[in-house]
Specification:
Elements lengths: L3 E4 L10 H4 L8 E2 L2 H8 L7 H12 L6 E5 L1 H13 L2 E5 L15 H9 L6 H10 L6 H11 L4 H12 L11 E4 L14 E2 L6 H4 L1 H11 L3
Parallel strand pairs: 1-2, 1-3, 3-4, 4-5, 5-6
Helix pairs in contact: 3-4, 5-8, 6-7
């Protein structure tokens, strides 16, 4: 049976899809909560988008009839799910080239210790990131995500950074649809063809009608 499966991004929870999910056709989508997935999985080795996709495939029986919609990091996972299962994949404000993620470093060893020492979750770091954020439309949402990071387990922060930046095997297929806002300052727009929507990294929340209409045009009648 065909399902729509939603995968949130870094430090996000499934609520990021509330506005969009209400406008998608069909039955209520399956919303994955990555913190819960990692608690069930309990990986002992370094993880990546490839290994996480393999776990999710087995845990949820994902197959070719499924549609995966991922936001940001969730879209990177969706691309690997498509490569492994043949499911259709829609990326929202996401990437297939890790260099598109705006970050001060991509060194996995350095990021591991930043996470494990809690440096990514300090109040000073949070205030710095909030002060640098340029978009009024989504400022409250962004600030809430930064504040929420302080409540997350350090191991989970580390695991998410691994998913974002750890090497994965090259993708053998590309997503079926890429939706992106040109003003996105968290993930740069892809070099490949994409459908542009208004807003910024959080267009799925503040321009959910535009995003939903783009998805509906892609889906078969």
């Amino acid at each position: 049976m065909a399902r729509t499966i939603l995968i949130p991004g870094y430090v996000e929870d499934p609520c990021i899809f509330d506005a969009l999910a209400a406008q998608l056709p069909g039955d209520s989508p399956v919303r994955l909560h990555l913190a819960d997935e990692f608690r069930r999985w309990q990986p002992r080795e370094t993880v990546s988008a490839h290994t996480l996709a393999a776990y999710l495939t087995q845990a949820h029986g994902i197959g070719p009839s499924d549609l995966i919609i991922g936001h940001s990091m969730g879209g990177w996972i969706a691309a690997h799910l498509k490569a492994q299962t043949g499911a259709r994949a829609i990326q929202l404000a996401s990437f297939t080239d890790q260099r598109k993620v705006v970050n001060f470093t991509r060194n996995p060893y350095f990021l591991h210790w930043i996470a494990r020492l809690g440096l990514a979750q300090t109040r000073a770091m949070g205030n710095y990131l909030k002060g640098k954020y340029p978009f009024e439309e989504s400022r409250t949402l962004f600030n809430g995500l930064i504040d929420g990071m302080r409540t997350l387990d350090r191991r989970y922060i580390d695991q998410q950074l691994q998913v974002l930046f750890a090497p994965s095997p090259p993708l053998t297929v590309m997503p079926d649809l890429r939706i992106h806002a040109r003003r996105d300052n968290i993930v740069r727009p892809p070099d490949e063809p994409y459908t542009e929507v208004p807003g910024d990294h959080f267009s799925l929340v503040f321009h959910s009608v535009d995003v939903a209409e783009t998805i509906k045009r892609f889906l078969p009648a």
